[in-house]
Recover the amino acids of this structure.
């Protein structure tokens, strides 16, 4: 599957996943008391974030795609390390259950049991992405969400006891069931630790790469949410609610860039340096074209869009949404450039430094602008941080890669010709499937 078709496949999966998450949000909001929904949502968000950050997904993808290490060997090592991390998280949950009485303790136990499937799935799915198997990667990533929706619906709509514990227990069971495809697709991976001795150099390499990429993940998570935290602290909770709606609208534009980054991940890691740079530059050009068009439309319809989606009380979100459209466009190529830094060069520390730069600027500018301009100041602070870190990332890419400045923005005739060719290719595939 080519990068263009793969990007479209990834985009469709992401649209489907985003819609399903929204439905789950509505379901839990309609069936759980406000306090219980808050406890359930906090546990899911926390465990998902920790599971993603502590997993070895970035490292396994790099060693499979770039270092050409046997996928079964990488997966076997990742599985052993993931089981160790899973045991630690489960023990922490059990400790909370033993030490804290009542509902909080039981929720702590469920949270501790919820992290292992997230850690294991993300680690093994990095091997799948490193092999370039996009459909399989997205199926494994989204299956737990589908199963979770089904179990949540059964529990919350068919059982009289609608509590955070019941919802979190249903979600936890779904995450374990979501690991079942690995029993079929990854049987050799699961058996590898039983038939071979671990390699110390590979264990060290996976842990070292994960330590840096995991810290970069923490910084990235803070970077995406620190502006909202500053609005809560320096403006008001009402302003934070309005600003959160603007963030949700602007970040939807990243669905395109993240899909292209996902589709090109394996090839950027596997190809020679010059070809990887060419693929990255082409991805940046297409990302800027698509996101610029989307940002222009979203900025134009912002006053109507926020009212239709969130209600008339959120009308003030239109201005920060327009400002964030600028920042989102400037930051859109970042995931593609990070692909090159981490998966081609094997230097996730560059991603970490870029994230720290953006975070520092966002906090500093937010402390100055939010007390004066409120949540609109937060939007300008975020846009400024994206502008600076984005140009720093581009400068590093041009310094480290065999590429030139025009390669990143000057559209070529073949770039525009790819779209009708992709449409014809998809139409032919659809006819073959239909026939």
């Amino acid at each position: 599957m080519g990068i263009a078709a793969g990007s479209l496949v990834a985009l469709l999966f992401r649209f489907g996943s985003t819609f399903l998450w929204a439905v789950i949000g509505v379901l839990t909001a309609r069936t759980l008391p406000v306090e219980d929904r808050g406890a359930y949502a906090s546990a899911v968000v926390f465990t998902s974030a920790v599971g993603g950050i502590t997993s070895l997904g970035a490292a396994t993808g790099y060693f499979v795609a770039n270092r050409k290490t046997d996928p079964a060997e990488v997966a076997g090592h990742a599985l052993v390390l993931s089981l160790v991390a899973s045991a630690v998280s489960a023990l922490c949950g059990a400790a909370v259950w033993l030490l804290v009485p009542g509902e909080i303790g039981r929720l702590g136990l469920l949270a501790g049991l919820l992290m292992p499937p997230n850690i294991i799935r993300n680690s093994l799915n990095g091997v799948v992405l490193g092999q370039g198997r996009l459909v399989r990667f997205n199926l494994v990533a989204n299956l737990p969400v589908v199963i979770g929706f089904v179990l949540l619906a059964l529990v919350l709509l068919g059982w009289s006891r609608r509590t955070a514990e019941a919802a979190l227990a249903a979600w936890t069971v779904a995450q374990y069931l979501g690991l079942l495809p690995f029993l079929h697709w990854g049987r050799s991976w699961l058996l590898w630790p039983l038939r071979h001795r671990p390699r110390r150099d590979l264990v060290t390499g996976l842990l070292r790469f994960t330590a840096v990429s995991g810290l970069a993940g923490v910084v990235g998570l803070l970077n995406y949410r620190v502006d909202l935290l500053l609005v809560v602290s320096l403006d008001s909770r009402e302003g934070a609610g309005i600003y959160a709606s603007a963030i949700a609208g602007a970040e939807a534009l990243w669905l395109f860039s993240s899909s292209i980054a996902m589709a090109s991940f394996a090839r950027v890691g596997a190809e020679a340096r010059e070809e990887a740079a060419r693929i990255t530059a082409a991805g940046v050009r297409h990302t800027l074209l698509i996101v610029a068009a989307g940002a222009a439309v979203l900025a134009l319809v912002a006053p109507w869009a926020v009212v239709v989606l969130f209600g008339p009380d959120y009308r003030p979100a239109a201005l920060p949404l327009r400002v964030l459209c600028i920042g989102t466009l400037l930051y859109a190529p970042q995931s593609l450039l990070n692909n090159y830094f981490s998966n081609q060069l094997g230097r996730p520390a560059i991603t970490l430094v870029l994230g720290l730069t953006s975070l520092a600027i966002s906090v500093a500018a937010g402390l100055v602008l939010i007390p004066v301009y409120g949540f609109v100041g937060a939007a300008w602070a975020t846009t400024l941080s994206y502008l600076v870190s984005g140009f720093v990332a581009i400068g590093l890419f041009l310094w480290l890669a065999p590429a030139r400045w025009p390669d990143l923005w000057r559209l070529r005739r073949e770039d525009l010709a790819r779209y009708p060719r992709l449409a014809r290719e998809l139409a032919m595939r659809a006819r073959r499937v239909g026939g």
